[in-house]
Specification:
This protein has about 60 residues and is mainly alpha-helical. It has one domain. Helix content is about 55%, strand content about 0%. It is built from three helices and no strands. The longest helix is centred in the C-terminal third of the chain and has 15 residues. The radius of gyration is 14 Å and the shape is elongated. The mean pLDDT is about 80.
């Protein structure tokens, strides 16, 4: 969440997270990522911005 709040490109940072956790690749780190309500809200907002969808289109 800190990366999201700071505006960091999370996808770009995943390899760094994998190394930090001692994993060989990003796929091995998948299990440590949790879809919290805050993250899902951010993902939904990012999708809306990227696609041009707004509240009036839901």
């Amino acid at each position: 969440m800190a990366w999201l709040e700071q505006g960091v490109d999370v996808h770009r940072q995943l390899p760094i997270l994998s190394v930090y956790l001692g994993h060989v690749d990003v796929a091995a780190s998948y299990w440590y990522l949790t879809a919290t309500p805050e993250m899902l809200l951010h993902a939904g907002n990012s999708f809306a911005v990227a696609t041009g969808w707004g509240d009036d289109q839901l």
